[in-house]
Amino acid sequence: MSRRLLGPFNRVEGDLEITLEVEDGVIRQARVNSPLFRGFEHILQGKPPQDALVYTPRICGICSVSQSVAAATALAQAQGIAPTENGRLATNLILATENLADHLTHFYLFFMPDFARDAYRNQHGFDTTAHRFKAQQGSAAPEMLAARAGFMHITGLLAGKWPHSLALQPGGTTRPVEAAEKSRLGTLLRAFRHFLETRLFAAPLEAIDALDSSQALDAFAEQHPDSDFAHFLRLSDQHRLQLLGRAGDLFMSYGAYPDESGEHLFGRGIWENGRQQTLDSEAIREDLSHSWLNAQSEPLHPWQGSTLPGDDDDQGYSWCKAPRLDGQIAEVGALARQLNDGHPLILDLVRHQGGNVRARVVARLLELARVVPAMEDWVRALRPGASFCTPTRPIEEGRGAGLVEAARGSLGHWMVIRHQRIINYQIIAPTTWNFSPRDRDEQPGPLEQALQGTMVGNDDDPVVIQHIIRSFDPCMVCTVH
Amino acid sequence: MSYRVLWLQSGGCGGCSLSLLNAESPDLLTTLAINDIELLWHPSLSEAGTAEFLQLIEDIEQGRQKLDALCLEGSVMMGPNGSGRFHRLAGTRRPMFDVIRSLAGQARHCLAIGQCAAFGGITLAGSNPGEATGLGYHIAEPGGLLGVDWRSRSGLPVINIAGCPTHPGWVLDVLCQLAAGDFHESHIDELNRPRAVTDHLVHHGCPRNEFYEYKASAEKPSDLGCMMEHMGCLGTQARADCNIRPWNGGGSCLRGGYACINCTAPGFEEPGHPFTETPKIAGIPVGLPTDMPKAWFVALASLSKAATPQRLKLNATADHIRIPPGRQKEEES
Predict the structure, then answer these.
(1) What's the pLDDT tens digit per position in B234-268?
(2) Each residue's pLDDT expressed in tens, for chain A with a length of 481 residues
(3) Structural contact between residues A338 and A253, judged by C-beta atoms closer than 8 angstroms
(4) Domain tally for chain A?
(5) Are A422 and A49 in contact (CB under 8 A)?
């Protein structure tokens, strides 16, 4: 048995370190460490509740809007108010812009460049892959950056700027839209659709949404060989990505993009063994047994939880907590969202091979195809002249939870207010779930499970590990915060 | 010879890097390439990870690799109890502050990217649980990690590109000027921030200026009026060009309908009052516009309030324009 300490990893958001125990070229155990602690839960103590809208987006520069929406939702619940209809639509649009931009950034800048690394130079088709996806040099990145920056004009218009906007409020949004601006939003969306339909998919978005089985996906790749999506699918076959990175196969989603009736565009739930169950967020507990935080006597719900940095004890190996749902580990992200929404393609992929590197990437790209048309509908539904925001109310005492879906999965804020001040604020981010350390029952977190059993041979820096890690699109700054 | 940049992240959110990806005309990678700026390493963009990166750091420390600019994004994490255990460089047990200090000593230029790296920023709000500090400043006091009077090899102090986050243009302008040998001490202000940014007020170019002139004020989020009187806006005091050089194709905080919270100034993270409420004494905002004598402001404000056209009075508390310019009489009749 040999032990390897790996890190730092780049092209993940923030800092990551992994310890592997390898025997006969196979990973027997993995320990995932989130090495940065900043202490946002402490920073928020004693603050006026509405100031959470300034502090929490600054937890993360890539999930900034998700953090804002979670804080605004928690405040709205505590105040007993709801956003106006325009405010709800604008919030969905701003959040969707961030989520889709993140999916695009992940695919083009974080995930694909690994296939253009020298380790693969003898592989069939390497030159074509390197020409398109080589980090900082490939032809795809400048095209994607221009498309992404143009798409982000939606945030310039609806939220002032990205990241770190104060436009997202408990009662809606601060930036009303006039008729001409509504038209401009439509143009920005069509420009983004054009990029996706010419470069990423080389097909209409609706054709991607209509893919309903593994066979349909294979046929698509053959019919549209010049698309970046087909390029990925070929690489996936070559590297057998469908056999890599399987975790516990329990998938959770808080539900994404609420509609006027409180239902979601992508449904909420827990998905396991082909069955969907109702999600009860009150069954969440945070286990601190293997984190460098002072452990509570037993795992607590975030309403009661605390975040107190402790000593460098022997049992701890990460600043990350281990959230568990009814004692079980849960995987979150686009794959979990699409499973819980029952998309036939994703159901079929997971039915055959469980959660894996390929399915996670496919689910992310599928969301690009599914959310842009929804955004077009939301823009059409905006009513210039009608209210975008209801005024907030002072809160003497109360509590509120904000459960949203960020690009990387389920994000929760739990806020308790007394005497008009925050007395407790606990946050569980998507990567807190996915990259959690072990719990007191020694159950490894999802990434730790996903790495176990992987063949790495004698390679000191195996690229295969990079594929597995990045398939979760980790956001490490959110993880510990 | 290209201008070689190493970009590190510590106690921050990565938002300044993500904002940098919003660069346009041309895009980020093209801007760097055509200005002959080479990223030796950037956490979001580089291919090399793990062993190659640790080797690169060693090569710079040993003088085998030339380093033109060290960019740090995020606060320096000193805690707990000065140990740096809140952020150790992954793959090593070494406190990140030690790596930063060592590389800063090798770099020709040293840039603090964003409010956190410059002054400590959001990470040192509240009780400062992480014992966060800036590279060359701790809030408004010179010092931070590198100490008072520290200079990089070029003789320049740490260049503080403050902001939360930074505008992509602020960072790229400075890097391009440095690469061209065209950035000098006269280009930085008293807090070592680029004067191209801080010679302006956020107020300059604010589309709500007419409301400001007549003290026609917004009262709640999404109102169109001036946000100084009630909504906590510090645009008349904050030094940045956000409304001259807008964000994401035409936005800014004020254009987005919310207050400027003065994120280029040290200490913005602890205003001493709720961010989006204006503190007042006897009905008069405590913070007055930059360089304006108080008596003048009070006199002008009461005069202009008395003269506020009906159009502005009505539009200020509405979320869409109720009376367009020149139609006041028509609407009143």
Answers:
(1) 999 999 999 999 999 999 999 999 999 999 999 99
(2) 899 999 999 998 889 999 999 999 999 999 999 999 999 999 999 999 999 999 999 999 999 999 999 999 999 999 999 999 999 999 999 999 999 999 999 999 999 999 999 999 999 999 999 999 999 999 999 999 999 999 999 999 999 999 999 999 999 999 999 999 999 999 999 999 999 999 999 999 999 999 999 999 999 999 999 999 999 999 999 999 999 999 999 999 999 999 999 899 999 999 999 999 999 999 999 999 999 998 777 999 999 999 999 876 667 999 999 999 999 999 999 999 999 999 999 999 999 999 999 999 999 999 999 999 999 999 999 999 999 999 988 899 999 999 999 999 999 999 999 999 999 999 999 999 999 999 999 999 999 999 999 999 888 888 999 999 999 999 999 999 9
(3) no
(4) 1
(5) yes
Helical segments of A304-384, H only: 334-340, 344-353, 357-381
Interface contact flag, B251 A160, Cβ < 8 Å: yes
Tally of domains in chain B? 2
- Do B194 and B258 belong to one domain? no
Range of the domain at A375: 2-480
- Contacting residues for A249 by C-beta, under 8 A, at least 6 apart: A272, A273, A331, A350, A354, A355
CATH of residue B141's domain is: 3.40.50.700
Q: Do A11 and B44 touch (CB under 8 A)?
A: yes
Residue B310 belongs to domain spanning: 201-333
Residues from chain B contacting residue A171 (CB–CB below 8 Å): 221
Rounded-to-integer distance, Cα A287 and Cα A279, Å: 19
Q: Are residues B57 and B184 located together in one domain of the fold?
A: yes
Please say which residue of B159, B180, B198 terminates a domain: B198
Q: What is the CATH number of the domain that holds A460?
A: 1.10.645.10
Q: Same structural domain for residues B262 and B315?
A: yes
User: Based on the domain organization, do B256 and B140 belong to the same domain?
Assistant: no
Nearest to B68 by CA among B116, B32, B20, B98: B32
Are residues A318 and A7 in contact, defined by beta-carbon separation less than 8 angstroms? Answer: no
Q: What is the rounded distance in angstroms from the CA atom of residue B255 to the CA atom of residue A394?
A: 26
Q: Which amino acid would we find at residue A61? A: G
Contacts of B276 in chain A (CB under 8 A): 50, 53, 166
Map tokens 């150790």 to a residue. B88
B182 and B211 together in one domain: no
State how far the Cα of B193 lies from the Cα of B157, in Å rounded to an integer: 10
Contacts A–B by Cβ distance under 8 A: 264
Task: Tell me how close the Cα of B55 comes to any Cα of chain A, in angstroms.
Answer: 12
Whether the complex's predicted ipTM is more than 0.90 is answered with yes
- Same domain for B51 and B193: yes
Cross-chain Cβ contact B22/A175 below 8 Å: no
- SS (HEC) of B15-67: HHHHHHCCCCCCCHHHHHHHCCEEEEECCCCCCCCHHHHHHHHHHHHCCCCCC
Nearby residues of A37 by Cβ (< 8 Å), 6 or more positions away: A292, A309, A319, A480, B77, B86, B87, B130
Q: Do B51 and A460 touch (CB under 8 A)?
A: yes
- Let me know whether B188 and B320 are in one domain: no
**Distance (Å, rounded) from C-alpha B12 to C-alpha B17?**
11
Same domain, B224 and B183: no
Contact between chains at B250 and A156 (C-beta distance less than 8 A): yes
* Bridge-based pairing state of the strands A421-428 and B132-133: unpaired
- Residue where a domain stops, chosen among B198, B217, B243: B198
3-class DSSP state for residue B95? strand
